[in-house]
Amino acid sequence: MSPAMASGSVTGRIHSWDLSTGVDGPGTRFVLFVSGCPLRCLYCANPDTWHLRDGREATVDEVMEEIDKYRNFLVTAGGGVTLTGGEPLLQPAFTGAVLRRCREAGLHTALDTSGLLGARATDGLLAATDLVLLDIKSFDVTTYRKLTGGALAPTLNFATRLERLGKRVWIRYVLVPGWTDDEDAVDGLAGFLSGLDCVERVDILPFHKLGTAKYDALGIPFPLRDTPVPDRALVDRVRGQFRERGLVAH
Ligand code: SF4
């Protein structure tokens, strides 16, 4: 059996797919939402991706068949495929197989991850990944724990590994008033990132409440229901802090 045939029968649990243009990597992207996430970010907009059991089983072949419908369009649009979730590294064999198959099909590949499970990403998986979208949710260990339920250190270790491997990295930073707008913590993160040549840009993602209806539908309280979204001045200040450290921030 050829490697492609073998990988085609690998199964994963997925939530959905969609096309997007903007923050999921360059150009127009086929975005695959993989089910399951070990974190519980208070601001999560996709609580319907948290549980593996809520996803539907799909083979790599089935996913590739869908991606193939858009292949020419994605290539022409300078885009590619982004795996997100949930947390794609919760299912590293499936995620790795999809990334490799996309690479073989000549498609640009991006992996959106919190980095918590970065140790599960094999060098082979990363070799098939053109761009890592690394979500760093706070640079303060206590805030990180309260905000996500997990530990910060694995994410920073993963960033350091990506630097060693010379991967291209875009950082994603969700800006939440009262949670991730602390000047010292932002400056600490900016200082850390400015020491990594692999970081091409930092995307400041203003907190929003578009996921509220999903929480209501699932009967789960949305913890940040009463938290304000950041105003323009706050977004500009935080973006400016990254730029002061020589980083490209959007
Ligand atoms: S890592 Fe992403 S999917 Fe998981 S809880 Fe946080 S925001 Fe939601």
Q: How would you sum up this structure, described in words?
A:
With about 250 residues, the chain is an alpha/beta fold. Helix content is about 40%, strand content about 25%. The chain contains nine helices and eight strands. Strands 3-1-2-4-5-6-7-8 form an eight-stranded mixed beta sheet, with helices on one face. Strand 4, helix 3 and strand 5 form a beta-alpha-beta unit. The protein binds iron/sulfur cluster (SF4).
Short description:
By secondary structure, the protein is of the alpha/beta class. Helix content is 38%, strand content 24%.
Strand order of the largest sheet: 3-1-2-4-5-6-7-8
The count of DSSP E runs of length 2 or more, i.e. the number of strands, is: 8
> What structural class do helix, strand and pairing data support?
alpha/beta
| Straight-line distance between termini | 46 Å
Share of residues in helices: 25-40%
Helix count, DSSP H or I runs of 4 or more residues: 9
Mean pLDDT over the full residue set: 96
Question: Which cofactors or ions or other ligands sit in this model?
Answer: iron/sulfur cluster
Order of helices and strands: HEEEHEHEHEHHEHEHH
Hey, roughly how much beta strand do the residues contain? 15-25%
The whole-angstrom Rg is: 18 Å
What's the main sheet like? 8 strands, mixed
Low-confidence regions:
none
The coarse silhouette is globular
